[in-house]
Predict the structure.
Amino acid sequence: MTASAPITQDVMTFPRKLPDGPTNLVGLTRDQLREALLGAGTPEKQIKMRAGQIWQWLYQKGVRDFDAMTNLSKDYRALLAENFVIALPEVVTRDVSEDGTRKYLVRIAGGHEVEVVYIPETDRGTLCISSQVGCTLTCSFCHTGTQKLVRNLTAGEIIGQVMLARDDLGEWPEPGRQPNEEGRLLSNVVLMGMGEPLYNFENVRDAMKIAMDPEGISLSRRRITLSTSGVVPEIARTAEEIGCLLAVSFHATTDEVRDKLVPINKKWNIAELLDVLRTYPKVSNSERITFEYVMLKGVNDSDEDAHRLMKLIKGIPAKINLIPFNEWPGAPYQRSDWKRIKAFADIVHRAGYASPIRKPRGEDIMAACGQLKSATERARKSRKQIEADAGLGE
Ligand code: SAH
Ligand code: SF4
């Protein structure tokens, strides 16, 4: 797909139940879980209790074996084992960077692969999860955007990424301990891996509801950030139906440049995007919108850009996250010089906005933002093709 082609949502959805196979309990909403248990023969008057017990085993204790669910009778456990599975994506490789960043390549049904990245910091541990295999969008600076293969992840595959990271971190509570203690290793989730989460809205929502459920993983909604390239019609739904924080991949201050960097801008331009952000429910000084801004040398990093950006976002409670471009082989851009990034940040800061510069993490294992691309799809387009897609050859 070239940058001038229409944006389409060319994705397949994967059935929750494989033909003739048992249903995976991971990723079902509470209602769907009850329905599934009823369908397998659980008596109606027990359904609430049984669903609650199983939910806790799955999401509070991290149990994967029906036999370990000791408050259920032996017969009932056998019935569960006949009808259901508890399945997570399979970890194919696990790389650990010199800086402690962990990257997991995980395989999902159909043999597709997605990447998940864990970033430890002193005050938090952030898991960057994927919502799609590849991405239908073609942002010209993003490695994922060059991947052709795309399918939506199921809710189970999305929450499964959080669960497998907790497995690896050894973070399921010991029996008798409460899950919601301070000092968690995995304390934050960002939907900033592969894919456009708002093109897979329902599955992302269902998975994040499971992550926030107080009788399970119980992450606060304010510790989950969804990043979108700007799917305008779905933005308000994010606040209403998920309630998490929002980040927007802004990256440019004129439509001309944004059309090239983030081609979805041709469908919903800067003015339309800002309009919907101005009315984003729940935005306040404590729940600001994050504007992500990738620093590309000579493309979007001038002082004029910084001033224009300040004018555009005036009135929106915001913080500006400056992302030094993470280069990948064949990329048609270069990272802005450090001095330029600092000068840009200073202008933003003087205008009264927080302007953190995102520290590149896990670069030695290609785990940085926008570098994610599955190993099977690593074969990349030619440089010429990438430049043509970026509109640089025109
Ligand atoms: N599709 C969503 C979320 C995934 S990308 C979105 O676009 O917002 C997460 C962030 O990484 C986005 O802000 C994206 O623009 C940025 N990004 C992509 N490629 C990058 C690269 N090579 N260097 C730095 N940031 C990049
Ligand atoms: Fe897709 Fe986001 Fe990459 Fe754009 S930046 S191609 S929307 S993953």
Notes: Residues 155-169 form the longest helix (15 residues). The first strand starts at residue 23 and ends at 24.
